[in-house]
Design goal:
51% of the residues lie in helices and 7% in strands. It has 408 residues and is mostly helical. 34% of the residues are buried.
Length: 408
Amino acid sequence: MHSFLRRLIPDASPLSHRERIRSAMGALIGILATGLLSRAAIGSDSALPAMIAPMGASAVLLFAVPASPLAQPWSIVGGNLVAALVGVTVAALVPNPFLAASLAISCAIALMMALRCLHPPSGAVALTAVLGGHEIHELGYAFVLWPVGANSLLLLAVALLFNNLTGRSYPHVTVPTPVDHGTKDPAPSARAGITAADLDAVLGEYDQILDVRRGDLQAIILQAQIHAYRRRTGQATCADIMSRDVIAVAPGDSLKTVLDLLRRRRVKALPVTDESARVLGIVTQTDILHKTVWEMRGPRLGLGRRVGLTLTRGRAPHGSVEDIMTAPVRTARAETPIADIVLWMSDSGLHHLPVVGPDGRLVGIVSQTDLVAELLAEMSGHSDPLPRRVASDPAPLPASAVSIAEAV
């Protein structure tokens, strides 16, 4: 009996109190704003309904599970409009209310699936069009525009503002897009372990709609693999593998100074720091090659970049490091587990990652070479820490080399 009862209660993902409060507050603001604006638009003495009940169900999706495919903008707007059109049409053609309600909901589901705008509350919209009473029937196809269309757009507008202002990405972005190197090869994280093709094959066999995007599911599986790798191999951190004798440059240093350092020290990247050693950015060989033009005396800023920088900053550039450096730059902490930086340095195309202390000051740098060497050592069962290296390392391995992490 106990096991049967447990099957009736869904497993819940761990959720913080902050997220619970944010969801509840979003629904409160969303429904309140939609109702007040709708009432203001039609007037307090109008016979038109200011809001329909299915908006409450839509609010649950838009504010409690905004990452769901069922809660995206096209889902709520397209789903509700399609369901309203179907409901009004069926109500006009089929006199029996229960048969009409059944047909309206089934046809609405079929159309929403075909148009990729499945939205569960839209079933209630179709039902409202059929069983909503005389006032709803009198509206005819105007019911599609008001209140369904207006309510949906107002609630969506509030969801867009609230979710993004409170730190959520909405419309939901599945995962950051890997750097495109202009080749046919997939991203490094997609070349080993569970691939997108593997996931598609399993989902095809499963043959059911899941309330999660495929990209999110793939990202969750990949992160679970990283956590499992960390659990199996221990807690090697950036401090264990980073180069500590780091060569850095100032934002005001000349392009010639950067080029000379890259050549003389045989490095591929230089952190850019201020007078307090706080990291401001990073300058790489790629920055030198792509953001400058070359002449006999060395690299200089081209006319197009000079104009662009002048318009952006409101002052003319001086041909210094700050004119070509990548900023802001992603950094790690000395205590960051190396498992956490595997994906940062593969799909993002990063070859070097500055390491900073609690005060944001530069304490080291990790290269792909450092990372791959440590992963190979762990795969070979070597427990001795790698010898400390200075920042002058050989040419970085191609991004594909880092995909070894997904195979561990």
